[in-house]
Automatic annotation (TrEMBL):
InterPro entries noted in UniProt: CheY-like_superfamily, NreC/VraR/RcsB-like_REC, Sig_transdc_resp-reg_C-effctor, Sig_transdc_resp-reg_receiver, Tscrpt_reg_LuxR_C, WalR-like
Species in which this protein is naturally found: Streptomyces kurssanovii
Keywords: DNA-binding, Phosphoprotein, Transcription, Transcription regulation
PROSITE patterns per record: HTH_LUXR_1, HTH_LUXR_2, RESPONSE_REGULATORY
Protein's UniProt keywords contain rRNA-binding: no
Domain spans labelled Response regulatory: 4-120
Protein name as annotated: Response regulator transcription factor
Modified positions (4-aspartylphosphate) in chain numbering: 55
Transmembrane segments: none
Keyword Transmembrane assigned: no
Pfam families the record matches: GerE, Response_reg
Length: 223
């Protein structure tokens, strides 16, 4: 399977470097490039990519707003945001908007290629450690309100669905969840799909962030 990719960055040198690097992977095809978030909708309509690799800071429409608009569409491609910061409130907002992960601009080429492949396969590119770092970055702003809202949403889940949601929040893969909860990988996938539908979420990253917002993973660490 060939992964159709669009690269969006306002720096032409960055776009050229990414296109050269990613175009060398046999299973990735660069089908288009954009210089601003305002171009994303038209590019997606015309080129039908699987993944959009998008800079988070651009002058006319930034990657955050472009991600929010894109992920509200049906059958939207996955989004990986590009950033120069490990912990940044805009990165966290992009994750909440539905981005499947982020990569730093100084990430080694092989890791960026691997990130695109993972996201195209439905796996997020966001480690539990990075998630906690991002959450801590904005923990002082409305944390209590977010926790109450997240707990209310998680009440919609059945018992096993809640267990799977917490495991996703810990960063566990489907295989790891299956082994821990004594169920098949297919059953785990079914639970994840139901969680996404019940909570109106886009991907596993948003499940993980909701679990962090609810404070349930912090509670586990204290016990």
């Amino acid at each position: 399977m060939t992964i159709r990719l669009i690269v969006v960055d306002d720096d032409p040198l960055v776009r050229a470097g990414l296109a050269l690097m990613l175009g060398g992977a046999g299973d990735i095809e660069i089908v288009g490039e954009g210089a601003d978030g305002s171009e994303v909708a038209e590019l997606v309509d015309r080129l039908a990519p699987d993944v959009v690799l998008m800079d988070i800071r651009m002058p006319v429409m930034d990657g955050l707003e472009a991600t929010e608009r894109l992920r509200r569409r049906p059958d939207a491609p996955e989004v990986v945001v590009l950033t120069t910061f490990h912990a940044d409130e805009q990165v966290l907002r992009a994750m909440r908007a539905g981005a499947a992960g982020f990569v730093l601009k100084d990430t080694p080429p092989a890791e960026i290629v691997a990130a695109v492949r993972r996201v195209a396969a439905g796996d997020p590119v966001l480690s539990p450690a990075v998630t906690r770092q991002l959450m801590t970055h904005v923990a002082g702003s409305g944390a209590d309100t977010r926790r109450a809202a997240a707990l209310r949403r998680l009440e919609l889940l059945a018992g096993r669905e809640r267990e799977v949601a917490l495991a996703v929040g810990r960063g566990s893969s489907n295989a790891e969840i299956a082994a821990t909860l004594y169920m098949s990988v297919a059953t785990v996938k079914t639970h994840v799909s139901r969680i996404l539908a019940k909570l109106d979420l886009n991907n596993r990253v948003q499940i993980a962030l909701l679990a962090h917002d609810a404070g349930l993973l912090d509670d586990e660490e204290r016990t």
